[in-house]
Amino acid sequence: MGNKGISKELIKHWYYKMLLIRRFEEMINEKFLAGDIPGFVHLYIGEEATGVGVCSTLRKSDYITSTHRGHGHTIAKGADVKRCMAELYGKRTGYCKGKGGSMHIADFGIGMLGANGVVGGGFNLAVGAALAIQLRKNDDGVAVCFFGDGASNRGTFHEGLNMASVWNLPVIFVCENNQWASTTPLHEATAVTDISVRSISYAMPSEMVDGNDVFAVYEAAVKAVDRARRGEGPTLIECKTYRVKGHFVGDPEQYRTREEVMAQMESNDPLKKFLERVLGENLLDEIQLKEIEEQVAVDIEEAVKFAEESPFPKPEEAFEDLYVEEVMSHA
C-alpha cells in the first residue's frame, strides 16, 4: 500500500493513539500489580494498530462493540483516558461511576456501546445497532464489532453474520486474530487457519490483513466502511496480530514460552513497525515523534492523578442507575 490519501495529521493521530493505548496499558499493568486496581484486567498490548486503524475511519456517531480486552478500542474511539483510568480504579468519576471496571467501560456519546465480559457478546449488539441505522433511512452510519479468534467459534458469530447479510446491514466485523483464546492456541480449537474464509457461508466479502500494520488495517477498513455507507452491506475483516501479555494480568502463561513472546515483539510489534516505516519514508521526523511522546506522557500522568484523587462511590450509590426512573409515553 502507498500513502495516497493519508495525511501527515492522520499519521500523527495514529502514533498518538497507538502510543496512548500502549502507555495506558503499561500503567494499568503496573498499578494492578501494585494493588491499586481491583478486579480482573485484560491488556491490549501488541494489538494497538487494529483498533486505531479501524476507528480512525469512523465518525463520532458511528458505533463500536468491544470485548473483555476493550481499553484499546475505547481509547481509539475517542474516550477520555482520565475517565477510563478512574473507572478501572473504581472511582465515581469513571465512565460507569466506578461500578463497571475494566470489562464494562462504555461511552454512548462517542458511539462506544461497551466492553463486554461475555466472549462473543458484541455480535448481536452491533447487528442491532446497524439495524437501527438502517431503519432510520437517512442515516449512513456504520457499526463495527471487534472480536477475537476464540469468539469466532461461538454461536453468536454465526447468528450475527448471517442476519447482517440477510438484512444487508451496515456493519463491519473485525476479527482480532491474536492467536490465543484465553490459554488455547488457535490451531487446537479452530478448524480453519484463517477466520476470514468463514464469510463465504454468509455471502459476505472478507479481507485478511496484517493487524500490526496500521496502514494496512486502515486501507481495509476504509473500503469496508465506505461499502457499508453506500448501503452495500457487511464485511468481515481478519486482522492477524498477537496477544503479547497473558490472558489477564497475573496469568502464569504456562501454555507458551517467553521466547515465543519475545520473538513476536521483536518482529511484529505494531509500534516498532510504524516507526520503521514513517522514519524510513520520511513521513514524520524525530522532532514530531518526540512531541507526540511527550504529550502522551503528560496525558497518562494526568489520568493517574485524576483517578487517584477522585472519590469512591458512596455505599448508597450501589442502588443508583439500576432502573429507568421515568418512562416516556409513546401514545
Automatic annotation (TrEMBL):
<protein>
    <submittedName>
        <fullName>Acetoin:2,6-dichlorophenolindophenol oxidoreductase subunit alpha</fullName>
    </submittedName>
</protein>
<dbReference type="GO" id="GO:0006086">
    <property type="term" value="P:pyruvate decarboxylation to acetyl-CoA"/>
</dbReference>
<keyword id="KW-0560">Oxidoreductase</keyword>
<keyword id="KW-0786">Thiamine pyrophosphate</keyword>
<feature type="domain" description="Dehydrogenase E1 component">
    <location>
        <begin position="16"/>
        <end position="316"/>
    </location>
</feature>
<dbReference type="InterPro" id="IPR001017">
    <property type="entry name" value="DH_E1"/>
</dbReference>
<dbReference type="InterPro" id="IPR029061">
    <property type="entry name" value="THDP-binding"/>
</dbReference>
<dbReference type="Pfam" id="PF00676">
    <property type="entry name" value="E1_dh"/>
</dbReference>
<dbReference type="GO" id="GO:0004739">
    <property type="term" value="F:pyruvate dehydrogenase (acetyl-transferring) activity"/>
</dbReference>
<dbReference type="InterPro" id="IPR050642">
    <property type="entry name" value="PDH_E1_Alpha_Subunit"/>
</dbReference>
